[in-house]
Structures are given as structure tokens and as C-alpha cells.
Amino acid sequence: AQKVTQAQTEISVVEKEDVTLDCVYETRDTTYYLFWYKQPPSGELVFLIRRNSFDEQNEISGRYSWNFQKSTSSFNFTITASQVVDSAVYFCALSEAGEYGNKLVFGAGTILRVKS
Amino acid sequence: GAGVSQSPSNKVTEKGKDVELRCDPISGHTALYWYRQSLGQGLEFLIYFQGNSAPDKSGLPSDRFSAERTGGSVSTLTIQRTQQEDSAVYLCASSLQMVGYPLVTYEQYFGPGTRLTVT
């Protein structure tokens, strides 16, 4: 069965600090996709990144970077020089592509509070 | 372009009444998903549509829940005889359909949700 674990329930940092959000997943499939979504106080889930199981290259997008390690089944997300606008709930999700669709299995989410 | 839209944004209903929640996906997205988000259960998958058919209904919590999609576009989630435990935010998402071999999975774009409160 698929499972996503985000062990950090809540993290508080001061603006300009770097912060890493952890994500550990379980799956029996060799082909799967991993995602990160942001849910700001407004409530709408915002897509951040998609990564397939065959691509272990790390990715950087501005202040955001992602570290995918199949050996440890982890897909961690780092925000560099955090800003107050980064305050949100962040969800990691897993999907196994199959003929019945690619439903997302979400972790419980990590609440990030960035203080000025 | 327009994103996923959902209506109503808020719905308060009495226990035992039926409710209908509507989702309008991004134009051109043939895959449509319903999820719900509640404090106790987090984000849970409910049902998946490919076009007008629903090959995966495994997440529907009971037979009081049903959904349909018409014209490969708008979808309606219906909850009959609502119970207090149905109170949650119901989220709709759409994506491009998986293609290729192995199947390529695309990201899902979410609507703003419908907050359902059953009193």
C-alpha cells in the first residue's frame, strides 16, 4: 500500500532562515510520481513540483529546492532564505500511475510559520 | 487561463438533507478527481473520472456518496442524507490524461473547494 509520512507537524522559523521539510514515502511500484503542494491561508492547494521515480536529479527553482533519494525513499523540500509569504501548510503526495487513474496519496502536511 | 472552479464555496445544511457540489475543470483536462479535507482525516481521495466514466470510486466512504460527470466537463458530487461526519472541505482537481508507456502522470490542479457544514 502507498503511504506518505511527513513527520514534522509544525515548523517555526525566522525570516531569512533556511528550512527543510521532510517527506518519506512507501510504495511497491517501480513507477511512481511524487509531488509537493502548498496550501496558503487562503486555502487553495498550489502545485509546486512533480518528480518521477526514474529521475533522481535534484531540482532548484528560485528559493525552492528538492532532494529526491530513492535509497531512503525520501523527497525533501528546502526553502532558502524563507519569507513570511512562505507561511503555509505544505503537503507531499505520491501517485502510482495505473489504468485506474493516478490518485494522490497525501501526507498529513507540515505547517510552516515564518516570523518577521 | 481559467482554473478549476467549484460551487458553492460554502454550504450549510441540516442533517439528513441532500447536497450537490459542483466542479468545473480546466478546459482540455479529461481527468477529474474529487478529494475531501477534514481535520481528522487529512486529504482523502474520493473518486476519479476519465471523461464521463469513473474507473476508480474506491474512496467514496458510503453509498450515500455519488458523483457524475457530463460532457467530459462539469462534475457533480452528491451526498444524500448528510451526516455530521460529512462536514469537510470538498476539493476538485483536474489534470491532463496519462499517456505513453510507462504511463506519464501529470500534476493535478485544484479548485478552491466547497466547505460543507452539516448541522
Task: Describe the structure in your own words.
- The complex is a heterodimer of chains A (116) and B (119).
- Chain A has strands at 3-5, 10-14, 19-21, 24-26, 33-39, 46-52, 59-61, 64-69, 74-79, 88-95, 105-106, 110-115.
- Chain A contains no helices and twelve strands.
- Helix content of chain A is 0%, strand content 51%.
- In chain B, strands 2, 4, 5, 6, 9, 10 and 11 form a seven-stranded mixed β-sheet that branches.
- Chain B is globular.
- The mean pLDDT of chain B is 93.
- Chain A binds chain B through residues 31, 33, 35, 37, 43-47, 50, 52, 91, 93, 95, 97-109, and chain B through 31, 33, 35, 42-43, 45, 48, 50, 55-56, 59, 89, 91, 93, 95, 98, 102-113.
Produce a short descriptive summary.
Chain A has no helices and 12 strands. Chain A is 0% helix and 51% strand.
Report the span from N to C terminus of chain A: 41 Å
Outline of chain A: globular
Mind summarizing the main beta sheet of chain B?
7 strands, mixed
Number of H- or I-type helical stretches of chain A = 0
Q: Over the alpha carbons, how many angstroms does the gyration radius of chain B reach?
A: 14 Å
Structural class of chain B: mainly beta
Strand residues, percent of chain B:
over 45%
Helix residue percentage of chain A = under 10%
How many β-strand stretches of chain B? 11
Low-confidence stretches of chain B: none
Shape type of chain B: globular
What is the radius of gyration of chain A computed over CA atoms, rounded to a whole number of angstroms? 14 Å
On the 0 to 100 scale, the average pLDDT of chain A is 93
Mean of residue pLDDT values of chain B: 93
Give the oligomer, counting copies of the same chain as homo and different chains as hetero.
heterodimer
